[in-house]
Amino acid sequence: MKILQVVAMYGSAGGVEVHTQEIASALERAGHSCVVVYGAPGLDLHHVEGRREYQVPGLLSKPLGRGAAAARQLEAILQAERPDVAYVHTFMEPAAATVLVRAQPTVFFAHTHDLYCPAGSKHLQRTDRVCPHRPGAICFVQAYLERCQSRTPLALARNYLEMMRMRWWAQ
How many other β-carbons are positioned within 10 Å of the β-carbon of residue 131? Predict the structure, then answer.
């Protein structure tokens, strides 16, 4: 089986990136082939011999505006590689995501809290607790009371709107 993995960064940058490399290696040892599509290189990008790896600028959900070019590049990769399934580890630019999910079966693994927390952490910093609230107006209040995200009004609004866009994308 040929598995296309989509990740924000490729190389060591954090847990998701290490997880992606470990999953790809384990799948390859089990006889599958992996193709990795990533938005940006990690801190120490090292290519794995025999593994097809593609950087696609504009692949990620941030910043908006480069989706059409990313979608065209991703479509070309899908046509060339013909994967059986896609395993997505990050939120993608909507145009690129649409190309992907229409091309073949796609699995999305949510590694973060971005679908239900504008800060992406569900962590109330001042009291060091897990946030018990659903997304809504309370997020704007908690930003000030709990310092769980930016307290700049424009940044608060942008984070909330980005969370709502990601929720739409995931559906």
Answer: 20
Long-range Cβ contacts of 125-131 (<8 Å, 24+ apart): none
Would the pLDDT of 62 be above 70?
no
Beta bridge partners of 41: 10
Q: DSSP strand E in the chain: where?
A: 2-10, 33-41, 52-55, 85-88, 106-108, 123-124, 129-130
Six token digits for residue 71: 């979608």
How far separated are the first and last CA of the chain, in Å rounded?
A: 26
pTM over 0.85: no
CA distance 66 to 59: 8
pLDDT band of residue 119 (cuts 50, 70, 90) is confident
What is the maximal distance between C-alpha atoms in the chain? 52
Residues, the chain: 171
Residues 63, 21: Cα–Cα separation, whole Å: 25
* Whole-number Å distance between alpha carbons of 112 and 122: 9
Half-sphere exposure in the Cβ direction for 141 (13 Å, CA)? 7
Rounded to whole angstroms, the Cα distance separating 150 from 28 reads 42
